[in-house]
Amino acid sequence: MSEKEILKKLNLLGVNSPTQIKGSDLSYYWQKKYKEIKESQLKEETIKEKLMEINEIYEELSKLDEKLLVEIINKYSKEEKIVYSDVDLYNLGVELFNEKEYEISIKKFSEAIDLNYEVPYYFNLRGWAYHQLGNEDKAIEDATKAIDLNPDNPEYFKLRGDAYLRLKNYDKAMEDANKAIDLDPNDPVNFNLRKLIEDATKVNESECSYLKKIRRSFVNCDYEKAILQCNEAISSNNKIADYFYYRGLSKQYSNKVYKNNSILNDFNIAIDLNPNNPYIWASRGSLKVQIDYNGNYIESAIEDISKAIEINSKKAEFYYRSGYAKFCNEQEEDALVDLNKAIKLDPNNEEGYLNDCLKLIEEINGFNNSTKEDGFGYVFLAESINSQDKYRIGTATDKGDLKRKVGNDSLVVSSKECEGYEQFATVLYRRYKNNRIGNSEYFLLNDVQYDSVMTSILRSFSKDDPKYGSGFLSDLFTD
Fold first, then answer.
1. pLDDT above 90 (res 330)
2. What is the DSSP letter of 377?
3. Which of 86, 249, 279, 450 is within CB 3.0–4.6 Å of 116 for a Cys-Cys bond?
4. What mean pLDDT comes out for the span 116-135?
5. Region 331-351: what's the mean pLDDT?
6. Same domain? 408 vs 439
């Protein structure tokens, strides 16, 4: 392996300076590059190829002496300071582009542009590199700059038209395709682009027709009809994210009972088909909260809603959902941050979540800041002697009231006399509202939920907090 080949492979790992090798092991840069590729927007096949390539590079370089690597970087870094003009940098970018090293090629094209801002094909090829990485906005920006510098080159309109096509902006895509044909009517690629846009437009019109019907049924709360329409659309081999998304939502809101796994599966497929739709992420997260927020789903639920916020950080709804999920996970302080952010984004309640935010904030603050005016009492969990998995979450004002309230049921756990007991019971009622039997104090709890209630009572009223007494189990319940 020649010195230039070694240098190129070091650059592919992101190592450009001898201080990087002296400061960190090569494995650090390999892991960093591996993660960068894994999380990129490249096609799955390209990601696999690049991961294999980066593994091979790391294995080869790790066998070489560190001093040799430092010497090679020092040697060629001195040469680079002398050699490169904007043309040299552009040619390096072209070489890297042809080797599908799009990210590094963008850096070289950018360096060439910094030296000479008036060359349209520098912008054009950088735009194609962005296009290959799925960054269509940047591709359109570069294509437009190239067109401004030279409006007579059909290649630049072809790039912008292709980028608009990916963004499903069919009108603008068609304008650019037609312009490319006008400038070069002998290039079949231009006609192929126009045909692709025409076909995509037809598919889009078909999708819109289906979606209009589905959305109309959903908005009218005719969920069973919406489910049937989604099934029909999906069976026509149109694997569109919205079909699965609306089918999952309709199942969730329907009066008929659908298995949670069936709803979750629809949301999973929708995300696979369109991972950039924040509403699907938020809906899946909220479903996970509803399914089992005290078990394995809660952390995943918060991650899903956080992803929705990452995609669109301007929606109050997503911050409310995040706040509620964190509240259910007993992260009250983090929940308050999200809820206040939701109010700040939508102070006029245009999204309709203002009252929910205020109510939840009041509930959190009411529990966290209870005063003696609320009085002292007990929160308890009792098991029904007549029904398995049926439990009662209740409150009592004193020990005598506690014994009367427990009655014939079997006491599982209770707090000692404490402040804010009613607010805490309200928290539990809300947290397990889907398990509550009517408006009674009885709940159907599985093993995980049962353990969580017990832990919550013992932990929330622990001796670590001077405001509360320690919780105690039923066998310690004595006069």
1. no
2. E
3. 86
4. 91
5. 87
6. yes
